[in-house]
Design goal:
With 118 residues, this protein is mainly β. It has a single domain, classed as Lipocalin. The chain has one helix and nine strands. About 12% of the residues have low confidence.
Length: 118
């Protein structure tokens, strides 16, 4: 095996050792002016790529542009909001069994904490 391939393999292994364990189901409540709304996520990380879905009042929606960088995750969700597409950009920090998200909607920041359920 040439040295370059070996070095790349070791770097990839090191990155995956330090990546957060984000795989599985997560749940929480988002505070809105109309009361709390339950929010659920299912995530799967493959290297630095994050895939999954969110489910809530708008149904099941695939996440887009998902990324994992150590304990940091980011992705976006776009859904129909009264005939208009609404995109929510999520940036979160994973800490053991919870993720604290900062969410941007219409340029306004929101916060959401979800707990791992499985």
């Amino acid at each position: 095996m040439n040295m370059r391939r070996m070095a790349i393999g070791l770097m990839l292994a090191a990155v995956s050792c330090f990546a957060a364990d984000v795989d599985g189901k997560w749940t929480g409540n988002m505070a809105t002016p109309n009361g709390d709304v339950p929010v659920n996520f299912t995530f799967k990380a493959e290297g630095a790529t994050l895939s999954g879905t969110t489910s809530g009042p708008a149904g099941d929606i695939k996440i887009a542009d998902g990324k994992v960088d150590g304990n940091n995750v980011s992705f976006s969700v776009t859904f129909d909001f009264g005939g208009m597409p609404l995109t929510m950009n999520y940036r979160g920090v994973v800490a053991k069994d919870e993720i604290k998200f900062a969410i941007e909607v219409f340029g306004m920041p929101l916060e959401l904490t979800v707990k791992k359920t499985s």
